Amino acid sequence: MAAAAAAAAGWIWRWGWGRRCPGRSGLRGPGPGPTILLLFLLLVGPVAADITDGNSEHLKREHSLIKPYHGIGSSSTLLWDFQGSTMLTSQYVRLTPDERSKEGSIWNHLPCFLKDWEMHVHFKVHGAGKKNLHGDGIALWYTRDRLVPGPVFGSKDNFHGLAIFLDTYPNDETTERVFPYISVMVNNGSLSYDHSKDGRWTELAGCTADFRNRDHDTFLAVRYSRGRLTVMTDLEDKNEWKNCIDITGVRLPTGYYFGASAGTGDLSDNHDIISMKLFQLMVEHTPDEESIDWTKIEPSVSFLKSPKDNVDDPTGNFRSGPLTGWRVFLLLLCALLGIIVCAVVGAVVFQKRQERNKRFY
Ligand SMILES: *[C@@H]1O[C@H](CO)[C@@H](O)[C@H](O)[C@H]1NC(C)=O
Ligand SMILES: [Ca+2]
């Protein structure tokens, strides 16, 4: 039993968030076989739903942008609308070229009615600008409105829904933050994004992420499930996800649109999207949860921010993730194994001592 549990724990380490999902093309093979999976499910039970699915059969083509955008039999271009400076090639979608005062976006044509999803974005930000002479970055969206140009990385302000900002330029000169910086914002239309402060007052969480002018592929994953919002990056060409943002208490409706936009100002960059792949996560909901109309949910966040959360942290670490289901499980497992080991060692020592005592008498 202990061995099986240890194997399961190893499985979690290997297949949890520590690794890029197997669903993406060009990645190492599929997940573990059904036996291990069954064992895992038996041991972990409800926690299993939290593990990245990433399975290619759960890829939702109608919400994904995949190369070749023009290919025969591909409907990618029909499923996505383009606006502004956006330019399509066979290899990438360029939201803005490396020129001043451009803005462009792409928007999924269909609203998304999945309650639990994970979006994998393959992107590339590159340009001739030297350090801190480039901008402004990319925004990824899950919002009520689409195709409306505006000042927030090429898209409208006072949006309804979720935004993930890949901000390459520190507009706030007083910041100690290291850029590029990734942050998230949830809005019900009442909040305005303050560009001069890099959105500091409205961000929920963020992290520093060195994604610009990299020679290899750069990826970002956004997962939304059961009120938990997770952002991971894969920027080091190691085929591994690295945690960036992990917050709970986020409420988003279904029926919003996925999109991506980018903008340049006095400074510029090429902002390219190579692919956006949406995966459905297989998560069960209670009958209570199922009974409500998810399209009527107002975007909101219920966790309370303490003022110190807005204090600069040079490392870019905003907060460490909460103790999630499987982390608690692992802790308990380690504790249990520890107790068992102690008990066994104790028993052996005790027995040895008894034997020695017998010999002396
Ligand atoms: C929108 O959000 C603001 C602040 O986050 C809040 O005060 C307001 O009540 C919200 N409005 C609705 C309609 O939920
Ligand atoms: Ca900025």
From TrEMBL:
Any single biological process term in GO: endoplasmic reticulum to Golgi vesicle-mediated transport
Topology in membrane: Single-pass type I membrane protein; Single-pass membrane protein
Any one GO CC term of the record: cell surface
Keyword Membrane in record: yes
Keywords from the UniProt entry: Disulfide bond, Glycoprotein, Golgi apparatus, Lectin, Membrane, Metal-binding, Signal, Transmembrane, Transmembrane helix
Subcellular location as annotated: Endomembrane system; Golgi apparatus membrane
Membrane-traversing stretches: 328-350
PROSITE patterns reported in the protein's UniProt record: L_LECTIN_LIKE
Main location: membrane
Any one GO molecular-function label of the UniProt entry: D-mannose binding
Domain of life according to the entry: Eukaryota
One Pfam match: Lectin_leg-like
Domain L-type lectin-like: 57-281
Signal peptide start and end residues: 1-49
CDD domains: lectin_VIP36_VIPL
PANTHER family registered for this protein in UniProt: VESICULAR INTEGRAL-MEMBRANE PROTEIN VIP36, VESICULAR MANNOSE-BINDING LECTIN
Protein name (database record): Lectin, mannose binding 2
